[in-house]
Amino acid sequence: MGYGTGVGTRTAVVTGAASPRGIGFHTALRFAREGWAVALLDIDGDGVEAAAARVREAHDVPVLAARVDVTDQGSVRAAAAAIDASDLPPVGALANIAGVPSPVPFLEVDLELWHRIVDINLTGVFLTCQAFLPAMIENGYGRIVNMSSVSAQQGGGVFSKTPYSAAKAGVLGLTRSLAREVAGHGITVNAVSPGAVDTDIRLSGTSDELEAAITAAIPLGRQASVEDIAATFVWLSSEDAGYITGCTQNINGGAYIA
Ligand SMILES: NC(=O)c1ccc[n+]([C@@H]2O[C@H](COP(=O)([O-])OP(=O)(O)OC[C@H]3O[C@@H](n4cnc5c(N)ncnc54)[C@H](O)[C@@H]3O)[C@@H](O)[C@H]2O)c1
Fold this sequence. Notes:
Oligomer: single chain
Bound molecules: nicotinamide-adenine-dinucleotide
Strand order of the largest sheet: 3-2-1-4-5-6-7
CATH superfamily: NAD(P)-binding Rossmann-like Domain
C-alpha cells in the first residue's frame, strides 16, 4: 500500500462527533492532536461539518466529515466507501461513540422507544464494525473502541434506564466476541465504560438535584471530563495498546469498582 506504520499514516473514524461539548468531538480533536487523520461521522450534518472545521483549524491533519445515521446500513456503508475513496490514509481506528440516553421508566417504554435506543447504541456499533473491518483486515492493523456505560454494569442507576443499560451491555458482549474473532488479523476490540461525564447528553430530564446526587456518589468528587474519556479512546487505539483486547476500561471516578 505504500503506507508506513506510524500514527500519521492512519485515519481514525469517530462516530457521534458533532456535539461541541460531546465525547465524540473531543475524541476526534484528540486523535488529530496526536497526528491521526480523522473522519467525523454524525447524524447532525451541519454540526459535523462545523466540528470538522474546528478540528482542521486546530490541527494540521487530513479531516473528513460525513452525515451518517449509524442505524442505517446504507448510510454507514456509503461513509466507509467515501473515506476509502478519499485522500485520507487507511482506517486504523474506529471509535464508536454515537449514542442516545433514555431515562424512561420500564413500564412506560414502548416498542418504538426500545428499538430506537437499541438501534442507535448497539446496532449502530454492529453496522460500523462490519463496514470498516474489511479495510482493517486488508491492512493487518485495526483498533476498535466501543462506547458502553457504567449503566450496563451496575443496572442503570446514573440517569438512563433499562433499554439503554441493555443496549450498552450488548456492546460489551459484541466487543468481547468480536475481539476473539478478529484477533488473528492484528485487530483489537475494546470497550470504554464511563460513569457520568459532563456533556449535554442529559440536558433534558435532569435537574440540579439529580446532578448533585450523581456527583456526590463519585469517590473522586467530580463527573468525568470529555478529556478523561477521549484520552482513553486514543490510547486504546495506539500501537502501545496492541496486546489489550476484549477488555472493558472503566472510567468512573471510583463510583463503580469491580
Ligand atoms: N455523558 C455521559 O454521562 C455518558 C456516560 C456514559 C456513556 N456515555 C455515552 O457516550 C456517548 C457520547 O455521549 P455524549 O455525552 O458525548 O452525548 P452527546 O449527545 O453530546 O453526543 C452524542 C452524539 O451522537 C450523535 N448521534 C445520535 N444519534 C446518532 C445516529 N443515529 N447516528 C449518528 N450519530 C448519532 C448526536 O448527534 C451527538 O453528536 C454516547 O454513546 C453515550 O451513551 C455518555
